[in-house]
Amino acid sequence: MMEMQHQESLGRWDGLSSRDASSRAEAMEFICQEVMRKVEAIEPKKAATPALGSSPNSDLNDILVHLLMLSRRCPFEDVRGRCTQLLRDIQDLGIRIPRPLGSGPSRFIPEKEILQVSKVDASTQAIFEDAFAALHRLDNISLVMSFHPQYLGSFLRTQHYLLQMDGPLPLHYRHYICIMAAARHQCSYLVNLHVNDFLQVGGNTKWLNGLNEAPQKLQQLGEINKILAHRPWLLTKEHIERLLKTEEHSWSLAELIHAVVLLTHYHSLSSFTFGCGIMPEINCDGGHTFRPPSVSQYCVCDIANGNGHANHHDDLLGNQEMCGEVEELMERMKQLQECRDDEEASQEEMATRFEREKTESMLVVTSEDEECVPSRDISRHFEDTSYGYQDFSRRGEQVPTFRAQDYSWEDHGFSLVNRLYPDVGQMLDEKFQMAYNLTYNTMATHKDVDTSMLRRAIWNYIHCMFGIRYDDYDYGEINQLLDRSFKIYIKTMVCSPEKTTKRMYESFWRQFQHSEKVPVNLLLMEARMQAELLYALRAITRYMT
Amino acid sequence: MEKMSRVTTALGSSSITGRTMFCHLDAPANAISVCRDAAQVVVAGRNIFKIYALEEEQFVEKLNLRVGRKPSLNFSCADVMWHQMEENLLATAATNGAVVTWNLGKPSRNKQDQLFTEHKRTVNKVCFHPTEAYMLLSGSQDGFMKCFDLRKKESVSTFSGQSESVRDVQFSMKDYFTFAASFENGNVQLWDIRRPDRYERMFTAHTGPVFCCDWHPDDRGWLATGGRDKMVKVWDMTTNRAKEIYCVQTIASVARVKWRPEKKFHLATCSMMVDHNIYVWDIRRPFIPFATFEEHKDVTTGIVWRHQHDPHYLLSGSKDSTLYQHMFKDATRPVDKANPEGLCFGLMGDLAFAVNESLVSSDAGRKPYPGGDRRYPFFSFKKPNPTEQFAHVSSALSVFETDLDSSRMDWFVKTAQLYLLSGKPFTELCDHNATVAQELKRPQVRRVRTKIIIRITGTANLNVSAFSFSMKEMGPESRLERCKGESRPDNVHLDLTSFPENEETEGSDGPTEYMFGDAELDDDDLYPMEHDNQTVPEEPVYTLPPEAFQLRHEIIDNPSAPEHLQQDKADSPHVSGNEAEVACLTPIESFSLISISQPLYSPHLHASFFCPIVREMLSHYAERGDVQMAVSVLIVLGERIRKEIDDLTQEHWYMSYIDLLQRFELWNVSNDVIKLSTCSAITCLNQTSTTLHINCSNCKRPMSNKGWICDRCRQCASACAVCHHVVKGLFVWCQGCSHGGHLEHIMNWLKNNSHCPAGCGHLCEYT
After folding, report:
1. How far apart are CA A163 and CA A171, in angstroms?
2. Angstrom distance (rounded) from CA B184 to CA B143
3. Which of A87, A239, A499, B763 has the fewest CB atoms within 10 Å, i.e. is most exposed?
């Protein structure tokens, strides 16, 4: 309800995303007047009934919330200033103004570490402005990613192309598919974001009641959404066939590719969202409060994920012990690099190592204790809640290992995507490479470290969890480079991101900077996306041949 | 050395025999290679490593190199190469990064000879030196190339590409020391085998990975590369900078490229994804493959010419687990299926026409353009662009330019706009339309309209002869007869061409000249259009009609058809490729079938009697490309005629007419036609995509469908930025700032201002 209402007023906000300072000022002026008018209108009433939530009031509240968002997130200095000023003025009039809940865009990363919107270099500023102009918002994900402006640019470009530019699917379908994908992981943040967008492009409110209210066509997508999100290796050409067979609600190949790219993108983005503890947007539910600050901190998500304040305590202790962790890791990397040649594992040994890694990844137990009950709100977007990640090599079903050399993104996936959905292949390719090669050659306090080995280990470990094997990789390396807590984090984030907790985030690589942990998250996200995409594309290729 | 090998391997093509054949492999193949004497082929893949003998009728499995109970990953081959000098020597590139050599001369079952595990990543390619027995080169995913001396245990030199993965390495056929390497980032490097420190030359060949490269077997400087960007490029490496001399655009990423032996300009390609065929291209003719082999059911992974001096045998292995030998003579030749003619309309009505040159010349001789007095004002023969082709095909391109002044479709547009199709009594409609036609100087059309009145109203006081002479399909005898019977056979005499026999268009001095649909379709030639503006026959031309001609008489003195005798014959040109195309109905045998006989004169005819005649007439018009007439008459006559013409035909006419109208952007008229049509298939056109989504201009929310007020922000949604009133009608808005208003207001405003009237500061533009 909230989202719907604040959307109304959005029309007026558009002027603020203009690059032209004078038109921004003009739009701002207009908003000021509007707000003041509203404030004056409720003034007398307010004296009589101070209760919050009466209808003209909530309308105003939405505007105030939006102003609050702008005052924090708008990339334009002048707008931020004016909004802050305006809010202060309103407060002086005796109106209760909202304040943001939580601190900063991420729960895991202290706000001070993340780039302030106000202090960015020119290139990041340009990216922010682009994003703001396209969406009239700058979301928390972008802010967290802005540790790596180069990647952020590529990411936003791709996302913008997928959601806004020419493509086989109509706009509201796209957003609905995003909702479907994010809902699979109960990622309320992304769901909320796209519910807004969905309504804004004219989507039917009814669809939001659940998948069974959506058109048949989208309902049919539910199946592969489910499989892709949790057990992509089970996707077969029959699934594709079912979607494409000619009938009223069938999909075209191009549409399907578009949908698949969207699904995988949002599955992995959900991983990132949870993995970095992205906070709800200020102007969405749970991102702000009108309560005075004295009321104790309360955040639904925090409680659901067991992130009370209590956690901070043992982290401090842990930190002490874990000194030297980085050095140890670097030592091992060096060793691996050096003794590669003298100790040549037999082929069988290599194969077993892969199997072992695969099986071991099963043993990395994700915190099962808390049965995460998805809030009603989100669960209506997907069916079959019980369907979750299942370990690749568990139970009798023998799914053959996916050989990366037989179906790789570079050789096969790219061509297929680019053929059916032009330019997207290029963008994804760029994004994958960017994430894979993202390094500043630092490890915690150490400079000039070649991290390629570590990155490859992470990438292959994730693919290993999805049953993708690289012939030319010695899976023994993973065991040496990734410690248990890191593996737990990876596995949780990739397979059941909704269970990621702050404790997990903090317990791996304790000495590393947040700016180094974020690229790991990006790497995880892209690796997961590629893995899902490979399975989906392979199924489509098989269908086509 | 090189000379020697040439001599020993240069077998006459006669010594190789065989046919197109295939055999099933147990597993998908990744690569194949042949031995020097073209008698055996090795197939390698993840789960297969076998040698087959090529026999006359079939492949025979000779040897399985995959031995051992638990084959290791060393057997999982990404590439294989058979040494071209040493019959017993093979090398494979394994997906786990190993380079393995195999010696077939070994007595044991396991033929593995040497194992090099120096590469860290998958080895994509191995390549033996063409003449040197012990030199092997490998290129790997890890970005390194290594040169091995097979007499030593390890590589003799390592070349670092300083960039991403190596996809292909190829020794030059001519330069002893040179090899080329292609990379995943789109680069190609040339190396000197003696200098591992730095490449000799590097250039960017493709966007995205270069999957393969191949040196020309004869020409020293030519290197062909194929990439993920779906291109095959041929580079001339003899110059200082690598120069792209040929480029072939294929439909899928190029996985392998191999020059065809003994044919300087031919090369074979296969793709890695989506496309399963093998193409042989003539690089000088990059738009259509010279030959295609379509046998495989899954992507082709390896191609190799069976013998290095025989261009007729191609071997291929595929993911579909088959090994094929293709005979060149069995290949499909796409060029045979290609349409040798091309026809295209330009924006301004120009017409370009390309055709096999031989056809043009022979045509010209065979078919003299009829009528010496004809003018062909815009028949310009542009330079033929002969291209050298394998099948000795060359095309001529002709461009027919229209005279821009001759607004040739004006009549169509005007009549379309002016014809009244409904809303008045029937006779008035006819009258009106007749007048319109008259004004637009299309007398014949007018007459038809008039005639319809006569016929259908069928009033007794009509001069009966009006019927008879309105029949354009009269047999000659009856015509004469009637002429005699006429009190005043009018001096207007139309000598009309009709085309029951697909005849060449013969000239007529009549007012109407049509473009003949059959011209382009049957004869590969085109008569663009004919103008005959000034022929105004002053006196009746009484020609005895030859077979193909039929005369049509018009009696003008009919009281109910008050027309002028003055017949301005200047007729607007009729064009039309378009019309001819869209209106090509099944030709009706001949109009002369209807011979009207005496009973016609009976004054008590029922209107329905004429229906067949009208029907014929309409089909006649439609067939001649004037669907406008057919449809207009159809609509005006409505029920009276509808039953006579079968629905399909009607629908066809309607569709054609609507299509035409829409091409001329006569949306309103076309909508009228749709509305008035009685064809259910047509009326339902109006019911598709009838939703117009609008968003409120204030809150940007979609408007619900109730009136002009947005129910969310409770404001008038579409207020005019100039007068601030609600716009109910034509609303024009700027796509930049989304402000707008009444069409005229905005037009006026923007005449004097450049800024948006809403004051948003946007520089709107009205175009």
Report:
1. 7
2. 9
3. B763
pLDDT at B398: 67
Please list every residue in chain A whose beta carbon sits closer than 8 Å to the beta carbon of residue B299.
545
- Give bridge partners of residue B733 from the DSSP assignment: B740
Q: How far apart are CA B29 and CA B32, in angstroms?
A: 8
CB contact under 8 A, A10 and B699: yes
Question: Is residue A310 very low, low, confident or very high in pLDDT (cuts 50, 70, 90)?
Answer: very low
The rounded distance, in Å, linking the Cα atoms of B618 and B600 is 20
Among the candidates B352, B370, B400, a domain finishes at B400
Instruction: Check if A15 contacts B (Cβ < 8 Å).
Output: yes
CATH code, domain carrying B106: 2.130.10.10
Beta bridge partners of B248: B232
Angle, alpha carbons B689-B690-B694 (nearest 5°): 105
Chain A residue closest in CA terms to B763: A23
* Cβ(A399)–Cβ(A392) below 8 Å: yes
Q: How many domains does chain B have?
A: 4
SS3 assignment, position B423? coil
A437 inside 8 A of chain B by CB: no
Residue A331 burial class via C-beta count within 10 angstroms: exposed 0-12, middle 13-18, buried 19 and up: exposed
Decide if pLDDT at B15 tops 80: no
ipTM of the complex: 0.71
N-terminal to C-terminal alpha carbon distance within chain A: 47
Count how many residues are written for chain B. 767
Mutation for B interface: A12, A26, A405, A409, most B CBs within 10 A: A405
Q: Is A284 a catalytic residue?
A: no
Does B150 share its domain with B74?
yes
| A412 contacts on B by Cβ (under 8 Å) | 272-273
- Tell the residue number behind the tokens 């194969």, with chain if given: A351
Predicted pLDDT at B225 = 93
Q: Which of A406, A428, A403 is nearest to A417 (CA)?
A: A428
Task: Indicate if B120 and B45 belong to the same structural domain.
Answer: yes
- The reply to whether B42 and B139 lie within a common domain is yes
Asked if B762 and B645 sit in the same domain, the reply is no
Q: How far is CA A85 from CA A1, A26, A79, B135, B580, in A?
A: 28, 16, 10, 77, 71
Q: Would residue B582 count as lying in a domain?
A: no
- Single out the catalytic residue among A187, A301, A464, A495: A187
Looking at residues B168-192, what average pLDDT do you find? Answer: 89
pLDDT at A205: 82
Measured between CA atoms, how close is B189 to chain A, in angstroms?
20
Nearest to B580, CA basis, from B531, B629, B520, B633: B520
* Among A122-136, A141-155, B175-189, B439-453, the least confident range: B439-453
- With CB atoms and an 8 Å threshold, state whether B273 touches A541: yes
Tell me the pLDDT of chain A averaged across its residues: 73
Residues B532/B440, Cβ–Cβ less than 8 Å: no
For residue B749, give the 3-state DSSP assignment: helix
Residue B263 lies in a domain: no
Q: Phi then psi for A85, rounded to 5 degrees?
A: -55, -45
B31 and B156 in a single domain? The answer is yes
What are the domain boundaries of chain A? 1-39+55-97, 117-292+325-331+344-367+377-544
User: B291-328 pLDDT, tens per residue?
Assistant: 999 888 888 889 999 888 888 889 999 888 899 999 88
Q: Choose one of B690, B723, B740: the last residue of a domain.
A: B690
Domain span holding position B126: 26-160
Q: Count the alpha carbons within 13 Å of A213 in the hemisphere toward its beta carbon.
A: 11
The full DSSP string for A445-476 is TB-S---HHHHHHHHHHHHHHTTEE-TT--TH
Using the structure block, give the residue that is written with the tokens 């190029």. B254
Measure CB to CB from residue B46 to each of A10, A406, A472 and give the nearest one. Answer: A406
Residue B508, SS3 per DSSP: coil
CA-angle at B644, arms to B640 and B647, nearest 5°: 110
